[in-house]
């Protein structure tokens, strides 16, 4: 079965997104690896000292999460038989995750602007009032739940790809490990490790999808099997 131009473009958009998204996340953490995360005051002072770096970090992180979650959702085009239910729910949760991470990073841009006010103490007081308000608490809770939904969406999409025998079953392990490390460690280093594991996973999935036949890409897995090295028994 020959590839059409449309299917080829769609596949390579997904393949590139699976690599580019996590890579942007790694870069976002790497450029500001020593940023404090123990208190709002420490974060605010860091934003005052390095405003451009903070904005760049938030921008790369926002785009990175949007790209990786959209690419994961796009990968479900190959799930029209085995794994389709898992992939469908995963795609929906991935889209919710995009909203959640956008909420989270929007606060970063707001705080970075306040950190540049001439009266530093007044800027911090405004930031503190903003972050501790009931509205901010509600938005933060909703954003956190949507972020969790996005992470669960990634796991479900990968599970669907495993169910369809397009990727090996062990690919779930580095993603789960990364989520756990980021949650337990709670530092920029922990986030970097999680993003590196996601990059390795996304790259492996991209290789598997890049090598699969058009029949496999369209969910017709029996039409042209994926090479044995990229599937599980």
From TrEMBL:
It comes from the Bacteria. The keyword Transmembrane helix applies. Keywords: Membrane, Transmembrane, Transmembrane helix. The chain crosses the membrane at residues 12-33, 53-79, 86-104, 139-162, 169-186. This is DUF4386 domain-containing protein.
